[in-house]
Design a protein that fits this description.
3 helices, 225 residues
Length: 225
């Protein structure tokens, strides 16, 4: 991913298929996934950021000012850590503690956690919440832990259904991959892929499952040979 510097206040976004890493004015770094947008206000007494869409990883520099990310109906406060925050189009939020811990305050309609109380998320755990759902916390599964390399543009899959691999790939590509036979989607893939190189990715999947790739109608269609 490309690394750039960022001023204290403003917006940072990525295009479809782009992964970008920026250094904030306080020395923290932020990596934005494909088609993501973050509003930054790193000044004054609090370092404030808002995830407007997509996903971002925050690697927080030591500073006396709190580092707070708002996403959906909640806020995440860093405790000297590296963490991911994702926001769906339906305002569902996922938070993953990659290294260290975070405190989460979620104010959704059915959340058990209100703004005056925080839930502490330990390393290796994931939390999810939404405007109409309670917060849920779970230990990250093996495939989630292996997906932590996404800022490099790579993602590892260990027995993941082919349909899920393609769904992940299609988040990054302008050209979409389509399975002609949906029954193939249940076959399991093991390996590491560069998600933002759609044509090469389709070729790797075709080779792995003895499929044929045909590019037509703006899509890469995978079918049995």
């Amino acid at each position: 991913p490309q690394r750039r510097s960022a001023d204290g206040i403003g917006q940072i976004q990525t295009a479809l298929g782009e992964i970008r890493t920026v250094r904030l004015s306080d020395g923290s770094t932020m990596t934005l996934d494909t088609d993501s947008l973050v509003t930054v206000a790193v000044d004054g007494g609090v370092r404030r950021l808002r995830l407007e869409r997509g996903r971002a990883r925050f690697a927080v520099a030591r500073d006396t000012r709190p580092f707070v990310v708002t996403a959906g109906a909640g806020t995440i406060t860093a405790l000297g850590t590296v963490f991911d925050v994702g926001l769906s189009p339906y305002q569902a939020v996922s938070v993953s503690a990659v290294r260290g811990m975070v405190d989460i305050r979620a104010d959704g309609k059915w959340s058990a956690i209100r703004s005056d109380r925080a839930t502490r998320l330990a390393m290796g755990y994931r939390a999810s919440y939404g405007p109409e759902t309670r917060m849920e916390i779970a230990k990250m599964a093996r495939e989630e832990l292996s997906a932590n390399a996404w800022p490099s543009g790579l993602m590892s899959f260990d027995g993941v259904p082919l349909s899920d691999v393609i769904r992940q790939a299609n988040r990054y590509g302008v050209i979409k991959i389509v399975l002609i036979d949906p029954a193939l989607g249940g076959r399991r893939f093991h390996g590491t892929l560069r998600l933002n190189d759609t044509k090469r990715l389709a070729a790797v999947l075709a080779h792995a499952f003895s499929l044929r790739v045909v590019e037509e109608a703006g899509a890469l269609r995978l079918s049995p040979q």
